[in-house]
């Protein structure tokens, strides 16, 4: 069975983001093909895609290597997200469906319930799901793709601390959903911009100690579609 290059790309990207491939380390087609249980062709295509996304760079005499972004490049990502997420919220106010609203409201209820019960273990994943759904509600494929790529790269470069006031964070999520539900694009944009500005104080640049050193090998059966 031929595994699509897109699936191989996702698997390599996930491992880069998780820190399994150190920044600056070589990514050889032969080793990657053996790791993911595929031929070298989809690996080659995947590396080209990852280079266009900024996760991989090609060096003379070394070939493909994991990129080594600077602190300024990392800061730029947060600034871009702070500009694009309010735009997504604004468009969501005009383009959201009832299905989007149902998911967004459900996530807010789940998040607030976890806080009341002092069960904050999955608040971060719920928050990611919330922002992904809000982006989807914008109805803009290009914007959704940009925000998705930004989320991957920010997760690669930053550690996110738990907010000191999680109840306020989820109250802000709820207010954004209310504005989106009313079709108030300007208020949705304003609330999302304020939320992003406050949230970024929890972001800390990753250092060498944040890099994982081992994980089970990924085989063909585990490559996600």
TrEMBL record:
The answer, when asked if Transcription is one of the entry's keywords, is yes
Which parts of the sequence belong to the HTH gntR-type domain? 2-69
Fetch the PROSITE patterns from UniProt.
HTH_GNTR (PS50949)
A Pfam family (short name) is GntR
Q: Enumerate the UniProt keywords alphabetically.
A: DNA-binding, Transcription, Transcription regulation
InterPro entries attached here?
A: GntR_C (IPR011711), TF_FadR/GntR_C (IPR008920), Tscrpt_reg_HTH_GntR (IPR000524), WH-like_DNA-bd_sf (IPR036388), WH_DNA-bd_sf (IPR036390)
Q: What is this protein called?
A: GntR family transcriptional regulator
């Amino acid at each position: 069975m031929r595994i699509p290059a897109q699936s191989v790309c996702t698997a390599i990207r996930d491992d880069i983001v998780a820190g399994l491939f150190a920044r600056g380390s070589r990514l050889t087609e032969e080793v990657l093909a053996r790791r993911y249980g595929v031929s070298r062709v989809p690996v080659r295509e995947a590396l080209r895609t990852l280079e266009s996304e900024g996760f991989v760079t090609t060096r003379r005499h070394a070939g493909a290597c994991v990129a080594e972004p600077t602190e300024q490049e990392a800061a730029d990502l947060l600034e871009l997200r702070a500009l694009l997420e309010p735009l997504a919220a604004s468009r969501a106010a005009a383009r959201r469906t009832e299905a989007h609203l149902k998911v967004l409201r459900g996530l807010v209820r789940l998040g607030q319930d976890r806080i009341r019960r002092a069960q904050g273990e999955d608040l971060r994943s719920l928050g990611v799901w919330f922002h992904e759904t809000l982006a989807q509600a914008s109805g803009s494929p290009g914007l959704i793709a940009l925000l998705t790529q930004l989320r991957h790269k920010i997760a690669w470069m930053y550690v996110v601390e738990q907010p000191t006031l999680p109840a306020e964070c989820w109250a802000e999520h709820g207010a954004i959903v209310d504005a989106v539900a009313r079709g108030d694009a300007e208020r949705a944009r304003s609330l999302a911009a304020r939320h992003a500005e406050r949230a970024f104080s929890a972001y800390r640049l990753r250092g060498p100690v944040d890099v994982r050193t081992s994980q089970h090998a990924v085989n063909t059966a585990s490559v996600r579609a």
